[in-house]
Amino acid sequence: MKLFLDTANLDEIRRGAAWGIVDGVTTNPSLIAREGVPIEERIAAICDLVDGDVSAEVVATSADEMVREGRGLARIHRNVVVKLPLIPDGIRACSLLSKDGIRTNVTLCFSAAQALLAAKAGAYIVSPFVGRLDDIGSSGIGLIRDIAGLYSSAGFPTRILAASLRSPMHVVESAKAGAHIATMPFKVLEALFEHPLTQKGLDQFLRDHASALAAAAR
Ligand code: G3P
Predict the structure, then answer these.
(1) Which of 19, 108, 154, 216 is the most buried (most CB within 10 A)?
(2) Which atom of ligand 1 has the smallest separation from the CA of 31?
(3) Model's pTM, two decimal places?
(4) Whose CA is nearest to atom 6 of ligand 1?
């Protein structure tokens, strides 16, 4: 399973990449807007930091415009994956870009039926939003499991990227449910490390080591 950071913040990406566990990055218009820089400039900078898939989302809403914008984004770097919304025009743009060999990530997926459309259109990645489904009392992890079953039965090669992950358990459960990729905010990646017994155990080891050294020096 691959771990991606869901951010357009370069400091966060640098810190995550330094651990050697970040396989790629996803961005969206909200994350780019938070940084206050043009998308092309920021996507190029992210591609310099991480050698893996970097999703960059179109903001056009008609298929022709999405294809034009998507081609421009794909030209920024060979690792760019063009992110398209799961609306009829987005699916048409996905079909057209996929036929041209441009890799796509169909986003804002909230049902197995929508995921079927993305796969039929040749999407390289589909992005079901786990947390936002949980927010409305539905099961985000259940959707990951449904899509994984559907793609496996139908033989679709589209990769499942679990998005809108808000906690370490979302990441773990997505992996168990069959997601190929989990994308998460930096704070969730950091939270994956956390367990009180790890720090407590390390403190004890270091205390014992220091006592042994002191005893040897006496
Ligand atoms: O990848 C999509 C993600 O950015 C959405 O997360 O927490 O706003 O639902 P959230």
Answers:
(1) 108
(2) 4
(3) 0.96
(4) 164
